[in-house]
Design brief:
The chain is an alpha/beta fold. It is built from 13 helices and 12 strands. The model has no long low-confidence stretch (mean pLDDT 92).
Amino acid sequence: MIRYAPGAATVRFGETDVAGRRIAARAIPWEGEAGPPRFRFDPVSRAVVLRPEEGAVSVGPSDPEQWRRALRRPPAGPVLVGPGAPAEELREASRAAARGALDTGRAVYLLDPEPSDLPDAPPEGFVAIHCGIPDESLVARLRAGAGRATAGLLLPILPGWTGEPAFLDHATAAAALAGARFVAGLLLSGDGESRRRAVAARAIAEPGSEERFFDRAHHGDWEGESRAALERLEELALGRGLATRPPRPRGASEPRVNAAASEALEDLAERESGDEHRATMLRAAVRWLDELGRDLGPVVAEGNFRKVFPLGADIAPEVERALVAARR
């Protein structure tokens, strides 16, 4: 039994990362873990979330204006809304949160949306990210929303389960047939508690398989196998014409050139993640672009970019190149 209780517009501040994209704040329409599905994957904590069959769930307001007011306070930048819930069609909390976020002029990522979550808005303003195993339910939601929004799959990588070559091939094929625009991989945390939860999820998904998976999860090369599976997933996605990370949406109040440059710099930071300092500086440049608010297109055209860029000469050429490319 699930007990639904009315709640406030819950917004969590604090910069985080989802699939290589900067998130400035989260809007939580449904707070509390209970009911189906029995487990889910959280791309923010990079962990399995186990869910009891019964419990209390706090439901946010169905008035977009309340969400808009709550989302005026966090720093500038994209907002993550979700995850959604099966009861959304009746309560409309996720839809209201998405609409409120879009009304602030921000870019919006929708996490695990139900088809009824999708707002009536220009599709370039938001991207739907379906995080999980592409079973019948997830594929149906992806297919239902693919015609109304840019949508794709964020596949959790678990060695011995979703990281196996046959599974990776099945996942990318199913996502492509459902109309996905991207298939990205989610590397889960490898600490002991995360692995324990992964084993519990496997027992729920495929009863009887958990003993063999336990040995792989706790005694195998979790990190090395995860990285190898991620590389294989990216090869398969590219081979099917899919992007390997979600595109960055553009909020109504964001300058087009700045938003496009932010996306390019995030991609570059992912490619150069082996150089931690450089990747950190590139992500700092994304934050600066998101928070600037000023259209840098004319500044770049006039040759004055280096005069306004505050983060140092070592990454200034890459940022300027991204802005120049975005103007074309």
